[in-house]
Amino acid sequence: MNGNINFPYKPHESEAESASNSYLMSLVTVIAGLPLPIINLLGTVIFYFGNRKGTYFERWHCTQALLNQIALFITNTIGFSWSLSILFSDNQLSNQYIGYMVVIVGVNIIEFITNIYTAIQTRKGIHVEWIFFGSLTNLICKE
C-alpha cells in the first residue's frame, strides 16, 4: 500500500460506505467462489458497474478494487487450470507447481488482509492507494 492519502474533501458517509463496500465485495466473492476465480471477478465487475456513476471517491475505490481482482483472477486462473491438469491428466506434481501454489496462497492471504484494512480505512473516509493499483487507478479514473 502506498499509504493513507487524504482527498481534498471529507467524503460523505454514503460515499465512504460505498467505497468500503467495493473491497468487502471482493472479500465476499472470494469466500463464496473460492474454487472458481471467475466468480470473484464477476462480483467485483457487477459492483463496479453499479457504482461507476457515483462520486469520484466511490468510482476511484471501485476501480482500484476491480484492477486488483483482475490481476488476482489471472494468477488464480493459472493455478486453478494447472491444478485441474494435474488432477485430470498425466501431469504430475512438480517443484514449479508447488512453488507457484505457495506464492498464490501467499498473495491471496495478503490481498485478503489488504482488502480488510482498506475497507476499514475507506469506511472512515480515509483514501488508501495501493502501490501498483493506486497509480494505475489514477491513470484510469478521472474526476
Description:
This protein is mostly helical and 143 residues long. It has one domain (3-140). The chain is built from 5 helices and 2 strands, in the order E-H-H-H-H-E-H. Strands 1-2 form a two-stranded antiparallel sheet. It is elongated. The model has no long low-confidence stretch (mean pLDDT 85).
Task: Write a compact overview of the structure shown.
The protein is mostly helical and 143 residues long. It has one domain (3-140).
Low-confidence residue ranges? none
Question: Can you count the beta strands?
Answer: 2
Per DSSP, the total helix count is: 5
Assign a percent range to the helix content: over 70%
Distance N terminus to C terminus?
Answer: 22 Å
Strand content: under 5%
Q: How would the global form be characterised?
A: elongated
Give the SSE map.
Layout: E1 3-4, H1 13-32, H2 37-51, H3 56-88, H4 95-123, E2 128-129, H5 131-140
Antiparallel strand pairs: 1-2
Helix pairs in contact: 1-2, 1-3, 1-4, 2-3, 3-4, 3-5
Keywords:
143 residues; mainly alpha; two-stranded antiparallel sheet; 5 helices; 75% helix; elongated
